[in-house]
Amino acid sequence: MIYRDNPLKDLPWAEFQRLGQSEKAAHFKRNGRPYHALLAQQFDRPMLERLCDLATKIRRIAKTRGGMLFLQDLLREKRAMLYFAQPSTRTFLSFYTAGQIVGLNLAEVRDTATSSEVKGESQEDSVRVFSSYVDMIIMRHPEGGFAERIAWLLSNTTRPVPVINAGSGKDQHPTQALLDIYTLERSFESHGGIDGKTVAFVGDLARGRTVRSLAWLLTKYRDVRMFFVAPPELQIGKDILAALDAAGVKYELTADFAKVMPEVDAIYMTRIQDEWDQPGESAQRDVSTFHLRAEHLARLKPHAAILHPLPRRAEIATEIDNDPRAMYWRQVRNGMWIRAALILSVFERDAEADRYYQDLTS
After folding, report:
1. Is 301 a catalytic residue?
2. What digits encode the pLDDT tens for the residues 62-117?
3. pTM of the model
4. Distance CA 39, CA 148 (A)
5. What are phi and psi of 288, to 5 degrees?
6. What is the pLDDT of residues 141-194, one digit of tens each?
């Protein structure tokens, strides 16, 4: 049973664990909108379009002093904890500024060495303590599935609060996928939107949680085709391919980056995530053929979009940064707007932004 006010309440943990990701996703919604935001699978096409539309409204409202003051009053009575047990710059600052835009009062723990975990407190107990002080937990953790476990735990306490997954192990980064979708939508506003586009994912696809989440979200758009361009040992996982097969999505696995460049509408570059490697393993791997260099720009379509979740190393030459097709700096800013939209939606305060925007543009 899915509870209207607390979707995970009284669902036994063992039963929850047996559910597939799409089945779990049904328990993360409340009143037809996100309550917990944990998996890419919980976002359908109408929800994606709604969040993108809301992000654009917030962005435009914030252009004036009066508009920014209005936004900052929307959640003035709410508090959120940014619990980042894994290093982060962009995601942390993106959520922090998104929270500021909509008036959230923010607390943070960015190093577990400063918490009672060094005294032996379990991570679950630490987060439950945080939930006593705040109305939302935004968390990033190196352990896959940890955000789901926390969401279930807090939903079955006397003070349930929503949980937003800001990156979970190697498996999910749903809000990065949301900002990627928003960036693609904006990039193709004059070219028919995302429907019918061809996207190439390049680099470390086996361990890239951003790729996994975005590839799944792209199944919600019509006639999207995908290339997965990587060395064999870093190729996309079979579970993602199974999901694409089930959705009827056309895709191709290849190691020939140069060949696919002229065919694609968007290139999603990724770095090699050698933090997961064994010592010395990354030094044995030549990935230079999976880099995008300035001389490649002539091979791309005029309207192509180049994305990267960052941080980058050498996989995109800095000479490309000022090309109008380079969207990765816009991605950074788009993350702030789409995360502000998600936060407002979780707290069910988005209708107020709609009304303000309507008055502003009427």
Report:
1. no
2. 999 999 999 999 999 999 999 998 888 899 999 999 999 999 999 999 866 666 66
3. 0.92
4. 9
5. -60, -30
6. 988 889 999 999 998 888 889 999 998 877 788 999 999 999 999 999 999 999
Beta strands in 33-174 (DSSP E): 33-34, 79-84, 105-109, 136-141, 163-168
Among residues 173, 197, 212, 220, the one annotated as catalytic is 173
Give the 3-state secondary structure of residue 290: helix
Q: Is residue 112 annotated as a catalytic residue, yes or no?
A: no
Give the distance from CA 200 to its chain's centroid. Answer: 18
Choice among 29, 140, 207, 220 that is catalytic:
140
Q: Which of 79, 90, 225, 312 is catalytic?
A: 90
Indicate which residue of 56, 91, 175, 270 is catalytic. Answer: 91
> Which domains, ranges and CATH numbers included, belong to the chain?
13-172+333-352 (3.40.50.1370), 174-331 (3.40.50.1370)
Which residues, listed in sequence order, are joined to residue 74 by a DSSP beta bridge?
Answer: none
Q: Mark whether 296 is an active-site residue.
A: no
